[in-house]
Every structure is written in C-alpha cells, then in structure tokens.
C-alpha cells in the first residue's frame, strides 16, 4: 500500500492505505475525525462534506489517491473551540434530532404493537373460520392501525426534516465563507469561478425546495448515525417501516377505488429495541 500526504485541519499527515480507500474512512478510521459522517454513501446527503482546498466536497466517494497533497478541512477544523456557527448548528441539531428520534421511535413502536395485535386477531379469526363479518371487521381494524402508524411516522419525519433546515443553511453559509476566504491571492480566472460558486450557493440558500430536499437527505443520513444501546440504527428501522406502510396504504386506496386487490395483511417485522 502506498503512502499519501495530506494536510488536515492545518496539520501535515501521512497515511498508509489502499489507493481506492474513500477519504471519509481515512478521516474517521485513521485520524479519528468522527465529525465527518457516513450518511447515504452516494455523495448526496451531505453528512460526509469536507472542504477540499477550500471547496465543499463530499468525501464518501472521493478516493484518497485523488487528494494526495491537497488541504482538507473537516468540521473539527472550522474552529479550535467549537465556536464556529456550523459546529454549533451540528451540535444542536444532532442532540435535538436524537431526542426527537427517541420520541418518534417510542410512538412508532407503540403503534406497531397495536398493529401486530390487530394482525394476530385477524389471523386467529381466519384460522378459526369466523364469520365473514368478523373477518372483515378484523381486516378493517388492521387497516386502521396501519394507517395510524403510517401517519404518525410521516408526521415525525416531516418534523425531523424541518429541524434539519438550520444545519443545511449553516452548511451553505460555511461554504460561502470558505469560498470568500479562498479569494485571497487568487488570479482573475479563479476569482471569476469563485464568484460564480458563491452566487450559486446564495441562490441555494434562498431556494426553499433545495433547502428542504437537502434537509430530507440529511435526515436519511442520520438514519445510519443514530444508534441505540445495542448499536442498532433505530431510525433506519423506522424509515424501512415507513416505506413498507406506504405501499400497504397505497394498496388500501387502490382497493377502495376498485383497483388491485389488497391481498393478505402481513405482520410487521419492526420492533422496539
């Protein structure tokens, strides 16, 4: 394995890794810089953002061989005492999000238990060859519980997304600050490019659709970060259950409109850790 020389948060460092190792894992595993997070893994959610020679860059898809000799700034390097607005925003949002996820998990688990109980009653009614009315009533009970569970998780995700907006905005402001700092000593062509990038970032900051989309990606990125005492990614369980229920509820609506049959109700595999 070759050696690679990079400058991270003002320090010159050497790392001995495979050439195709993502920069994200070099930062986290080799240098213990855990502020750079793994989120989506496809360079979209922004959890892995670093500044590469002053330009905001996703690090999860960036191979170490590409950045040899370059200067990298992680969230830890924005200020030594943690006073930078982005560091504060991440700290506050991380704590708030984890608390909200805990509450959402409790609500989802309670509703899921009710759904499972209703599904068990339906199963028993079918096994005992109960009357058509009893089976139909049991099916409606399951549908009601699943609709309630779906709506509760959906509302929680909307709230999580709204609370992620300040972090997205802080990230954009940090990019603009870094770009402005990179103007020092820049030539004319580079200056023009920097100004274009600043204009684009300001447009993003004022674009509510962009902000909300990035906030949604950020929440999904948190799915791989928030763990319970057993190391399980609990938010990911909720997101998976949400996608499952989305299809189930859509099936209900199709059935009510004369579309495809609903089919048998299946029990949920989601359980509270």
| Total domain units | 2
Largest sheet properties: 5 strands, mixed
Mean pLDDT across residues: 78
Radius of gyration, taken over Cα atoms and rounded to an integer in Å = 24 Å
Number of helical segments with 4 or more residues? 6
Strand adjacency order, main sheet: 2-1-5-3-4
Detailed description of the structure:
The structure is a single chain. A hairpin with a 2-residue loop joins β1 and β2. Strands 2-1-5-3-4 form a 5-stranded mixed sheet, with helices on both faces. The C terminus is likely disordered. The longest helix has 50 residues. The chain is of the alpha+beta class. The protein has 6 helices and 5 strands; from the N terminus they run ββαβββααααα. The protein starts with a strand and ends in a 17-residue tail after the last helix. It folds into 2 domains: 75 residues, Roll (Ubiquitin-like (UB roll)), CATH 3.10.20; 172 residues, no CATH class.
